[in-house]
Amino acid sequence: MRAPIGDFDQATPAPDCLDELTAPVADAVRAWRGAVPADRIVYVDTEPDWADTAIFLEHYGKDLLDRSANCVVVAAKRGGETTLAACVVLSATRVDVNGVVRRQLGARKASFAAMDVATGKTGMEYGGITPIGLPADWPVLVDSAVVDLPYVLVGSGRRRGKLLVPGKAFAELPNAVVLEGLGA
Fold this sequence. Notes:
The longest helix is centred in the N-terminal third of the chain and has 8 residues, at about 25-30. The protein is built from six helices and nine strands, in the order βαβαββαβαβαββαβ. It has about 180 residues and is α+β, with helices and mostly antiparallel strands. It has a single domain, classed as YbaK/aminoacyl-tRNA synthetase-associated domain (YbaK protein). A hairpin with a 2-residue loop joins strand 3 (about 70-80) and strand 4.
């Protein structure tokens, strides 16, 4: 199969390569329901040492910047309680943690979660966190610009490999909230 975006040597529908994904991501693909069929989620094999956005784009094409998203884990605090959430924004933008995220989660303070918390709670590798397969009770905040794209490149749960996901599929994730201006 040819990748819907980018120039990758190998592209496979995610349901056909579950062993390439972390357990939570594979489980989410198996249980996928919604208007976008699971086989439209495509796995592409990539070099794990090139997982970080700037290095990835250098090797796989700078034209992917406008079609790539980052998924970051945030910790929102209010009255001694901490809520973990995921934020999905285009790679060329930064998550508005202290504005949009803090207000959406009703938090007094919000910040990026520590790496060990993000990886420990998601079961995913740092540099590969994806919104597909996150804990069921987490809010998933998605910038509207991500949803508007035909396909978006995002982590696969591991540093090796990426997922190419139809933008509108992000709005169908459990607990997804699409927000204007999440990425600034």
